[in-house]
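Hi L.,

As promised, Valine--tRNA ligase:
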Amino acid sequence: MIEKNYQPADIEARMSVVWEDSLAFKAGRPDRRDAVPFTIVIPPPNVTGSLHMGHALNNTLQDILCRFERMRGRDVLWQPGTDHAGIATQMVVERQLMERQQPGRREMGREKFLERVWQWKAESGDTIINQLKRLGASCDWSRERFTMDEGLSKAVIKVFVELHRDGLIYKDKRLVNWDTKLLTAISDLEVQQTEVKGHLWYLRYPIEGKTFSPEDPSSFIVVATTRPETMLGDTGVAVHPEDERYLKLVGKNVILPLVGRKIQIVADDYSDPEKGSGAVKVTPAHDFNDFEVGNRHGLRRISVIDREGCLDLVDNEDYLRDLPEGAGQFAEEFHKVDRFAARKRIVERLESFGFVERIEPHTHMVPHGDRSNSVIEPYLTDQWYVDAKTLAKPAIAAVRSGETSFVPKNWEKTYFEWMENIQPWCISRQLWWGHQIPAWYGPDGKVFVAETEEEAVSHALGYYVEQEVITAEQGREMALDRNKREGFITRDEDVLDTWFSSALWPFSTLGWPEDAPEVQRYYPTNALVTGFDIIFFWVARMMMMGLHFMKEVPFSTIYIHALVRDEKGAKMSKSKGNVIDPLNLIDEYGADALRFTLAAMAAQGRDIKLATSRVEGYRNFATKLWNASRFAEMNHCAVPEGFEPAKAKETLNRWIAHESAHTTREVTEAIEAYRFNDAAGAIYRFVWNVYCDWYVELAKPVLLGPDSPAKDETRAMVAWARDEILKLLHPFMPFITEELWEVTAKRDGLLALAQWPLKPAEPTPEQLAILAAAAGPTEPLMSPMLVMPIFDHADFTDPKAEAEIGWVIDLITQIRSVRAEMNIPPATLTALVLVGASAETRERAPRWTDVIKRMARLSDISFADRAPDGAVQLLVRGEVAALPLKGVIDVAAERTRLDKEIGKADADIKRAESKLANEKFVANAAEEVVEEEREKREAALARKAKLLEALKRLKQAS
């Protein structure tokens, strides 16, 4: 029996246990052995993480797809797991050590520190998984993976070794984004550009052979810089090759102030004659653009800032080479001074010698680490790289050919722009937590890449014996005795970028590189659901790795969802204090309400403006369904054995079957097209408007009347339509639907495994081939067809029933609308005249007179050839209905009221349009503020349109 009140918390806890105990979400169930597989891999959340609104949206949409396809008979694998999140996790554990005043990682040593991280992972690493379960995620939790599981680690090592063997992984000395706080390289994608108010320093560089004088412009060239501290590493000055001011100076030298080093003036298109002085200092070791300029002109790379962001000048051979006598003293003075403190002191020194022409305020973008918030330092260092350009080519071709498609399609442009301009991918990180790079170094620095240390030792010993560095006998002894080779080769201490391992996620989670049957059955996956912010981090890299190692794209469809913002359209952030915690919403309104809210608002290409009131509204929607189901139960509505809705005789019952079929097609097609909001909207309208507001209300006279065949049929149909609702709504609101199914449907089995109301498509030839291969020679494919429902009601239509019930509903709706517009009190009954009614209307009206009078608040229904004087005329499905309002309302007073309301609407429109026409307002106001004004304008326009329609009707009654 259904409880009186809907209590989401009780239901969710109970249903979670039911699903888990029944293994409802397990892939490869015996009953699905012959079913076509459907696979989605979860974007693995960080093991450090907890559920945020982006996770809630992303996983709700994935779950809708998985539950939908599971109900369509597919063998669904929703692969769950978490990412080790190298930097983030290491930061968490190091912060814990600091807060507890315990030894830091360097004092602990690598081995002890990693033990501590694994301990933390065991204690706290499952937090987000449990939160995803609270959301209702129907993953196959028995297959949960972690990017540092033994199997996945084996895949990472194999991929690194094979790519290195193929020349696609290599070591190079290049500039990287260096985080001086975390002491590691980070990728471009982990850098946030932050607007900073700083300065632009104009510095005078003396020209070689001329006596420098601040008053003599011919004795120096002026360069502009935002980072004067890097001038110590300058190895050139660049001017534009067509800048006439400097043509005679190209090829000559200037003397680097304070340092005395001679550096060359070069002509390069990078220099912009319109900016600053038109001349720029070139510091190849501390600026990415300068690095390229230096490469083009063969300029030296002199690194003067160390890994901790301090000047590194003493014993720096690159810096000290070619310095005039006495410059070494300057090196000692500034050695190990923080870069920002050094900036101030260097500028002071330059000013004292007359080398500063002027200083201007300058607002510019400065790169910061997205985790440390430290200013990023371009740093010249040896790192491991992937030849991303080569790997990107087939990944670009796969999207261009349509083998993989983006939804919405406009994201393909973003994908192509990044992939076609892709840079080498720096994959090494100076961390301890992560997959340690499988490279070992010999005594002379030669690199040996291998899957195991033993294999690396074997390669190294063979190489050094051949080079006669050691004898063959020494080599044999060292191979047999570990102690004798201690320190002979050492392993690279760096670990791999977190995204390297997650790039393998679609196939490493299935058991690759082992010959696991799951790889053949579930790869490639069907859809990837993710946010636009990791198209480059993750999506592109999965495409590259999947095509290279599996020779197939990892997924056929990439659905990119938008951001969840606050109700005003602002991006959620802790600093703004507008973050909405999904777990709080689940606690207050239930997971189903949150899920339905997110799905209903997930229009393609449009950010979600989330208001708590929307979640509350969909909780009320769930309550509405609960109460309707309870009403059905209290009126003994149940589906009898062998009931066939297509054979219903009552017009009302045939109408609900017709509407149910229409909604089923609408919901199915929308989910298939990733139009989640349209699917949610269709089922919402059917439940609230069609089933609850109309069908149940129109059926009440029969249900509450005497026993009869019509009553029996209506009871069965009320229950049948309710069950169809539970099926259609289940992917969106799984908890309440499963609970009601268990209590009211009285069927064997779970709703999660019930059949979807619309017959699924037959398997494609490609799918049949996958099935046949997966079955194998000893277990032949029994039946390629999916199980079909007995009554595929989505093929059912009854235009005649729809015409009759639709006329009743439209008539009542329009009468209610006029009563509301005209402020007619509910207690005041009005008459209705059907004008020039057709024979069909004259026939159906008597059948529904009592219902129409009750629901539309009418005193009488009559027929006439013309509308009475003072009547408002309604056009209902091509026929005229008239409401005589003479004596019912004060027409003059009502017209005055409407004119006043129209005036208010006009004022609101004018106010909003005035702001939107102001270019400064649109350019400077926050995006959410501008959008709010647009919404105000649209709301006022809509309000005015309704008021004008009411005024038009009022004039009819005059």
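The first strand starts at residue 37 and ends at 41.

Thanks again for sending the construct details.

K.
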